[in-house]
Design goal:
CATH topology: 3-methyladenine DNA Glycosylase, Chain A
Largest sheet: 8 strands, antiparallel
Strand content: 25-35%
Distance between the termini: 33 Å
Number of strands: 8
Order of helices and strands: HEEEEEHHEEE
Number of domains: 1
Radius of gyration: 15 Å
CATH class: Alpha Beta
Length: 189
DNA sequence: GGATGGATTGACT
DNA sequence: GTCAATCCATCCT
């Protein structure tokens, strides 16, 4: 079990997003396998960083390997991991592995496939909020471990955006039933 | 100063 | 399938 060092994130978000599939993310001992991510970068019209730094997205322009946590639709939290400046990877789904009891209590559901399937659900299950914005992923309460076995990564179009729709920067663990939505039938985009 | 819409989710028809 | 919840950046007047 190897903790990913912060410089590991100092490269393109798409590259990090693909390599994060199969890694393990824990917050205070609660978490699991990363099975779904999306990449966003400075040149991407769908990205919060597209129009430059603001108070909300300041962490996206901070050091790599730190969290960028923002509020979505006024009520949910979404967690990203910062890569090269102005780019980040959105953590969209985990396969629950540790702290299932705490996840169930926070999420008010017992279905293991609904505990961490979606960016808002991941943050609720792991109790991630604005307090974690800007904090480094190599220190408590975070633990982020490298893959301990090889994985097959699939890619497709990102979810819930209106611009940059064609960019295939959503990454999934092949065959996982813990993703927020399956890839469309047929050839991946 | 006000209106609009979003990297979402859960409840409901 | 539709809709409301509700924060904040952006765009308009």
């Amino acid at each position: 079990m190897t903790q990913l060092p912060l410089p590991w994130f100092a490269r393109s978000a798409a590259s990090v997003a693909s390599d994060l599939i199969g890694c393990r993310l824990l917050v205070d001992g609660v978490g699991g396998l990363v099975v779904e991510t999306e990449a966003y970068d400075r040149s991407d019209p769908a990205s919060h960083s597209f129009a430059g730094p603001t108070s909300r997205n300041a962490s996206m322009f901070g050091p790599p390997g730190h969290a960028y946590v923002y509020r979505s639709y006024g009520l949910h939290w979404c967690m990203n991991i910062v890569c090269e400046p102005g780019s980040a990877v959105l953590v969209r789904a985990l396969e629950p592995m540790a702290g299932l009891d705490r996840m169930r209590a926070r999420r008010l559901t017992t279905d293991p496939h609904r505990l961490c399937a979606g960016p808002g659900r991941v943050c609720q299950a792991l109790a991630i909020s604005g307090e974690h914005d800007g904090r480094p992923l190599d220190r408590a309460p975070f633990v982020l471990l490298a893959r301990d076995q090889p994985v097959t990564v699939m890619s497709g179009s990102r979810i819930g955006i209106t611009r940059g729709v064609q960019t295939p920067w959503r990454f999934l663990l092949a065959g996982s039933r813990f993703v927020s939505r399956p890839l469309p039938r047929g050839r991946p985009s």
